[in-house]
Write a structure and sequence with these properties.
Layout lengths: L3 E6 L14 H13 L4 E2 L5 E7 L6 E7 L7 H10 L7 E7 L7 E5 L7 H10 L5 E6 L9 H5 L5 H24 L1 H8 L3
Helix pairs in contact: 1-5, 2-3, 5-6
Length: 193
Amino acid sequence: MDETWLVVGLGNPGKEYARNRHNAGFMVADLVAARIGVKFGRHKRAVAEVAEGRLSPGGPRVVLAKPLTYMNLSGGPVAALAQFYKISVGQVIAVHDELDLGYGQVRAKIGGGEGGHNGLRSMSKSLGGKDYVRVRFGIGRPPGRQDPADFVLSDFSATERKELEFLVDRAADVVETVVTRGVEVAQNTYNGV
């Protein structure tokens, strides 16, 4: 059977959010689309931009998605796409920013809590479960007493931007490894890096 994966980059639509920490998922989805030579377009059944393709000739089919509902309501479009493409919860990958990982760390895992991440909370509720794959893009904790909500909606710092392209590239590698070789291989390859 032809296996299809739904890779969801979490973020907020609009130019003003494009370089925010909260948009790490969009950045990774954009890079995976560029690697496989597909372009995003508006989906007819879900409030999302979607790009479809294969990571390699004959490889698994991938549906890349960027919900356009703003982070806190991401679940509706994700569930609509999963239903439209007949993709089970276990074949969904959420790529998201992660406060609980230091900047520069990228980790893969299956299921777990949402850690206060409203995009994940919305996805879990709409999908009716938490057993989807997460590719966690570490952004670290806010400095001093800065509110985490303000921190995630601020742009990466000049220092962070020096490494950002490399880290987005690594996160895209993690996504591709999950799809082609499985979560365990992705964890063994990247979680210790």
